[in-house]
Amino acid sequence: MSVLAIAPAEVLRQVRRIEVRTRRLVDSRFAGEYRSLFKGQGMEFAEVREYQAGDEVRSIDWNVSARMGRPFVKRYVEERELTIMLALDLSGSARFGTRARFKHDLAIELAGVLSMAAVRNNDRVGLLLFSDRVEHALPARKGRKHALRLIRDLLTVQPEGRGTSMGAAVDRLMRLLPHRSVVFLASDFLSDDVEKPLARLAQKHDVIAVTLEDPSERVLPDIGPARLEDPETGAVLEVDTSHPAVRRAFAARVAAEEEARRKLFARLGLDEIIVHTEHGYVDALLAFFRARARRPHGAVRTGPRGTLGDAAAQYGWVPEMGR
């Protein structure tokens, strides 16, 4: 892991801009949705008080009532505090984009919104940045100061690796998170070996896959002969992008990879939020909150309008288009 050579004053300005933008989004669009969706992990004992008309009989504390000679009840409150972990893929393929921003820039903005939403609800939030190694880890804590530190790290950490190791990321997450947590895992999921690590993570934690996509990865540009370089391995391939056979093969491979990812996430019971460099993340994230609130059991899949196929229903997904 290395740190970008940005002057401290410029970093502070960037952090402040992200804080202002994300706080507005949280206050205006996400705060209520976030709280209603992530309600906490149970109830904790608060106090014993005298029985009042309307209290449930089953809440009576019989031991205290016997000692005091009159009925007392136990009162519980929601155990609201959660741990939210933001895990972002910074591999070569994630640091790519042909629209207004790169895929990892989109993930950074989304992580900023989620961190501010967590702080607003007094939850702990942490950060893991990975490529073919763990580039940076920030344990989950509470408070605005911690959230600003998290945003600063998002802006300044420069990855040393180019490849993707989901296994290395999951190994560190399992050590960082001793208790059940909510994990937002942002990646393009183009790595081959993802099933076993994801299955291991999903056994213990609530995993939400955030799939980062760019239009040029789905439709091959028709520009004639071109030299293409793999951003993770550096391998170079020369192809004629105008040749019908090449275009058919590319389209078939994209469709097969998307189908395999859908089946995998459905099999593991993972929610998926698809975010595009072309459309941004706001509508897809808001649609996810609403879709999951309506269906607390079973995976949901959200994304920009027109990106989710009818085949999703075959695998147990609940499609929810961004509005």
CATH topology of the largest domain: Rossmann fold
| CATH architecture verdict of the largest domain | 3-Layer(aba) Sandwich
* Strand tally: 14
- Give the oligomeric state: single chain
Physical arrangement of strands within the biggest beta sheet:
6-5-4-8-9-12-13-14
Low-confidence stretches: 1-5, 306-323
Looking at CATH, the homologous superfamily of the largest domain is: von Willebrand factor, type A domain
Rounded to the nearest angstrom, the radius of gyration is 23 Å
Overview of the structural elements:
This protein has helices spanning 8-37, 62-68, 103-120, 144-156, 166-176, 195-204, 215-218, 244-268, 282-294; strands spanning 2-3, 43-50, 72-78, 83-89, 124-130, 134-141, 157-158, 182-187, 206-213, 225-229, 236-240, 271-276, 301-303, 319-321. With 323 residues, the chain is an alpha/beta fold. The chain has two domains: 2-35 and 81-321, von Willebrand factor, type A domain (Rossmann fold), CATH 3.40.50; 43-78, no CATH class. The strands form four sheets. The chain has an eight-stranded mixed beta sheet with strand order 6-5-4-8-9-12-13-14, with helices on both faces. α3 (103-120) packs antiparallel against α4. The two termini are 38 Å apart. Residues 1-5 and 306-323 have low confidence and may be disordered.
